[in-house]
What we know:
61% of the residues lie in helices and 8% in strands. The longest helix has 52 residues, at 18-69. A hairpin with a 6-residue loop joins strand 1 and strand 2 (12-15). The radius of gyration is 35 Å and the shape is rod-shaped. It has one domain (2-74). The chain is mainly α.
Amino acid sequence: MFTLRIDHPRRFESVRSRLGDSLIRIHNEVQQAKDQEQRIDDLFEQWQGQWKRRREQIAERLEVIERQLQPVDPSGDQTPRLAVVGVPSDAQNMAAMAAN
């Protein structure tokens, strides 16, 4: 609310106006938006820190796996030799796999 001086220099009265109320409401909403934006920025920075740590953990694990796989193929061939192993759910699938 705005304070206006009326008649006497020491006498103050509060006068409400639609403009004053609108300005106060806008100010409050802008402040809330800034606070929310700051919270979002803080959460994003926190997420980035967690992802950075997780990414480093994944990189370390991959390095360990690579070191463990080096003795398996001493020729240094870089193409992976992977196989997918599955268990057939019925006898028909098992017979088809046996035929191949």
